[in-house]
Specification:
heterodimer, A: alpha+beta, Rieske Iron-sulfur Protein, 2 domains, 4-stranded antiparallel sheet, 3-stranded antiparallel sheet, 1 helix, 22% helix, 31% strand, elongated, B: mainly alpha, Cytochrome Bc1 Complex, Chain C, two-stranded antiparallel sheet, 14 helices, 2 strands
Chain lengths: 139, 367
């Protein structure tokens, strides 16, 4: 083999070794730093019915994010994601007006999560729930 | 490659990088009889780098709160992907750092490299050695295990033997009468901020002195093995006709680094709990003292000395005297001869001291 060819071959081998070592170091560090899949997620959340009186809202952690359960004046229940669809702030329940307000950019939603005014492009995401034996199960 | 050359050219015309490479790397000549022991400093720099990096990564999940510290360490070990690897690298690295540091100091001792004009190199190195002991001691408490808690209790309690100020000093070290949450807070601050910052400054000073005085000539394979420095004016020890640092000695450095990494990773992967007694896996309980609590292996000799002497003050004074003697060795040993075999008194004292230390360590382990 020519001298230049051997030098090139050894250079490639060396580069391969360096790349291998770098990958062996960086992969564990990346995995260590990466958010864990399903971290903070809870498969289901149970809330006693008595905790959500008429015209009130209850905020809770769901799926690693914030969610809210509302009992409207007519007694019906709604479970929604509490994350504003505009820029991700957490909405607030306004008992007087019976609606949600996003304090970041004044987005307004109805208790069903429908946008009434402001910049939010979409309604709040609805969450599935069931009611049984005095308990509300979300998820 | 053309792009890389262009980039180097671009930098070179601005900061003269090729001149720096010529002066500090390819044109930086080392003695022809230089040996592997001179690469221990580079190995230590790599270890320090690994400790800093793994320490920063551990800080992401570690909670320095007495109620949460043990749980957070357990979570790092069991829940966080590769958390065990990062923690084991940090814990094993703290022990191997002491091993390599001892080898570095012993090689400097036996080759007479501590002698004038390198007193400041030795002194900064010796302070770094005590700082490594300090950073290990403070880091030992952080997992808040039974071992951490009681080893720290014993270690801080030894200051009690100092007359007059002893009890106040112990309370100051602990931040409370007993080891507790206040101790964890101050040891955490020392471990992650104050001592590392001091170490970085001292490593800088150590390298600066090395650069200004020049690399010492090993005394092996030479006719004249005496120190040639006259002591009248500043002199940089050059090595005309020597071997270039890059690539020749850089390869030697790399070889030592890879040998170290092979040993280090062998422990991390095949015997990670080598330095972990069973009490390291039990959360701290201030009401239950485990039997036979012992410090880390490199403090066993100190621990045994304190046990031998019925009066702790005598034990502490002896250790303080030995450490002071070692720190000031270049000012005590002013002989010009560097070859260990031509320094019989030194050789006798060094080997005797080393055997005494090993003996006390083994005694401390089995006592």
């Amino acid at each position: 083999m020519e001298k230049g060819g051997r030098r090139k071959f050894l250079g490639i081998c060396l580069g391969g070794c360096v790349a291998g070592i770098a990958a062996a170091v960086l992969y564990p560090v990346y995995r260590y730093l990466a958010p864990r899949s399903g971290s903070g997620a809870t498969a289901r959340v149970e809330i006693p019915e008595k905790d959500v009186p008429e015209g009130e809202a209850k905020f809770f952690e769901y799926g690693g994010s914030s969610a809210v359960l509302v009992r409207k004046r007519d007694g019906s229940l709604v479970a929604l994601s509490a994350v504003c669809t505009h820029l991700g702030c957490i909405v607030q329940w306004e008992k007087d007006t019976q609606g949600f307000l996003c304090p970041c950019h004044a987005g307004h939603y109805t208790p069903d999560g429908v946008v009434t005014s402001g910049p939010p492009p979409k309604p709040l995401t609805k969450l599935p729930f069931t009611v049984a034996n005095g308990s509300i199960r979300i998820g | 490659m053309i792009l890389l050359k262009r980039l180097i050219d671009w930098i070179d015309v601005r900061v003269g990088v090729r001149e720096v490479v010529e002066k500090e790397l390819t044109g930086y000549l080392l003695p022809r009889n230089i040996n592997t022991w001179f690469s221990m400093g580079s190995v230590l720099l790599v270890i320090f780098g690994i400790q800093v990096l793994s320490g920063i990564l551990l800080l992401i999940y570690y909670v320095p709160d007495a109620d949460k510290a043990f749980k957070s360490v357990t979570s790092i070990m069991n829940d966080v992907p590769f958390g065990w690897l990062i923690r084991m690298c940090h814990a094993v690295g703290s022990n191997t750092m002491v091993v390599v540091l001892l080898l570095h100091m012993l090689s400097v001792l036996f080759m007479g490299s501590y002698k004038r004009p390198r007193e400041l190199n030795w002194l900064t190195g010796f302070i770094l050695f005590t700082m490594v002991q300090g950073i290990s001691l403070t880091g030992y408490l952080l997992p808040w295990s039974q071992l951490s808690f009681w080893a720290t209790t014993v270690a801080t309690n030894s200051a009690n033997a100092i007359p007059v100020v002893g009890p106040a000093l112990v309370e100051f070290l602990r931040g409370s009468k007993l080891v507790g949450p206040a101790t964890l807070g101050r040891f955490f601050a020392l471990h992650v901020a104050l001592i590392p910052a001091g170490m970085i400054a001292l490593i800088g000073a150590h390298l600066f002195f090395l650069k200004r005085t020049g690399v010492s000539t090993p005394p092996f394979g030479l006719q004249n093995t005496t120190n040639q420095w006259q002591g009248d004016s500043y002199h940089h020890e050059d090595h005309p006709g020597g071997i270039p640092f890059f690539p020749n000695y850089a390869m030697e450095d790399l070889r030592s680094i890879f040998i170290y990494l092979a040993c280090f990773l062998a422990v991390v992967f095949f015997d990670p709990y080598l330095f972990f007694p069973k009490d390291a896996f039990i959360p701290a309980n201030s009401l239950v003292t485990p039997a036979h609590i012992k410090p880390e292996w490199y403090f066993l000799a100190n621990y045994q000395v304190l046990k031998i002497f019925p009066n702790e003050l005598i034990g502490l004074t002896l250790q303080g005297a030995a450490m002071t003697f070692l720190a000031l060795l270049p000012f005590v040993d002013r002989g010009k001869e560097c070859h260990p075999l031509k320094r019989p008194l030194f050789l006798l004292c060094a080997i005797g001291g080393l055997l005494l230390w090993i003996g006390l360590t083994i005694w401390g382990h089995y006592s």
